[in-house]
Amino acid sequence: MLKNGFVRSIRVDRPDLNNNTADVQRLEACLKVELDTGRVRIPLTVMKRLPSDLRNWNFKAKAVLFKDCHSWFLLDLLDPDTPSSVLGIAIDIGTTRIAMALVDLETGQVLGETGFDNPQAAIGPDVLARIHHSNQPGGLKQLQDLVIQGVNREIGRLCRNHGRSTGDVYAVSGAGNTAMTHLFAGIEAFQMIKEPYIPCMNILDTVAAVELGLNINVRGQVFLFPNIGAYFGGDLISGILYSDLDQRERPAVMVDVGTNAEIVVGSREWLIACAGAAGPALEGGMSKMGMTARPGVIDRVTVDPVSNRLAVHTIGEKPPIGICGSGMIDLAAALFLSGRMDIRGKFSTEGCGSQLYEENGDMLFRLVDAEQSGTGEPICLSQVDLNSLTSSKAAMYTILEVIVTQTAGLAFGDLDRFYVAGTFGSFIDPVSAISIGMLPDIPVDTFRVLGNSSLGGAILFLSDPQVFDRILNIRRSITYMELNVNQDFMNMFSGAKFYPHTDRSRFPSLLKTT
């Protein structure tokens, strides 16, 4: 049993002629001591059977608890000898993909994980399309129903796979961007995309699961990570929590690349955050051959130092069907370092040779021949795709430069850690990203891969209720910077659109190789 978890083993004082305090008040006093708090709410549902339960259980019990912004409250009181443990569900409410974990609330152990494509994509592939749809009659409910039904299906599957019941699930923690959090909760989101871009809520207090339509225990509760504004959501706050960025003595950076590139720099003393459009070309949103990571997708591209030939690696060692963000960065680095692409990000006719050809007015680089691909067609990178990647890498570097060097007043070398989050971060090779001028030229051992930090923070919340206050403190301590009002951004962005940069001195490690 976790010492400070949401589930506690308690012993209530026995009544006698010298202690005739009512059962509820004695339970309340016990919980106040256990939780070191001045207030605990006990629901009527527990009160109704409390006298017989306490006596049948010899005044011992398993207390299932939860928190909101104001106090602790009791969800249920269970037989202390109940063989099955109390469960929780952590959710990363992603725009493209939803990830979930089944957590034992008594031990903190993750019992299983799953993921599925966000079913709201059937309505619109991006946040903007979904928010517009939500403003149509019945649109908001349709979008909420799609995501809740998908989550309910996976909750049931996770529980069945581990021989458990959905009735054992009492707590849900979810983290997503501001728009996805609104749509998950069925809250109007249309004002977020209209000037001055105001969300309906930034902090949604703990809500009953039945109100959201979640099929868990009828007394179950849901905590959704708070957001800061329309462009900085709970998924980033969850990532900060998971990375311990808010606890570090020396400054560090966390980057999460998805629909946008979201960046936080700081330490336990201060946090500065911003977001910018640097993600689509890296997550398959703009490239014809780009796609999210799955079997058959190219995740690595290398250059043979002797033959100068390119080699690809696919997830699951399957025949290649496309390329994901990390593979795209590797490919760009390989093209640049092998002389197949010039410093402007344009294909070199001489360097590419017969792999470069023209089709419908666009230049295409054939990475994989039709005979070797899993689609029966060649896998190619077009100049249009490459231009998009160039803009994305330039935006990423410029955002980092603005927030780290201009706003925080740090040199990149001052960073103690550089955390890369998300699915994208799980595969990225920092050397390749540095080679194309996407990430700063700092020692490779500075970089740390976090994986799905949004899900990681949601899991941490279920295993340690004490982080509840820390989450709210993270939200209060962040200074959010709006990039579109930064006058220098576009000038800096133009310089970063070259490979690796117009100022080659920023990338000393490349001076020896290019």
What features would you describe in this structure?
- The chain is an alpha/beta fold.
- It folds into four domains: 7-78, Ubiquitin-like (UB roll); 87-224, 2-Layer Sandwich (Nucleotidyltransferase, domain 5), CATH 3.30.420.480; 235-280 and 390-506, Nucleotidyltransferase, domain 5 (2-Layer Sandwich), CATH 3.30.420; 281-388, no CATH class.
- The protein is built from 15 helices and 22 strands.
- The chain has helices at 23-35, 44-56, 127-134, 139-161, 178-185, 209-212, 234-243, 325-337, 349-352, 383-407, 422-427, 430-435, 453-463, 467-477, 489-496; strands at residues 7-11, 40-41, 60-67, 72-78, 87-93, 97-104, 110-117, 169-176, 207-208, 221-224, 252-257, 261-266, 271-276, 297-303, 310-314, 322-323, 356-359, 362-368, 379-382, 417-421, 447-451, 478-480.
- The protein has a six-stranded mixed sheet, sandwiched between helices. Strands 21-20-11-12-13-22 form a six-stranded mixed sheet, sandwiched between helices. A four-stranded mixed sheet has the order 1-3-4-2.
- A hairpin with a 3-residue loop joins strand 5 and strand 6.
- The longest helix is centred in the C-terminal third of the chain and has 25 residues, at 383-407.
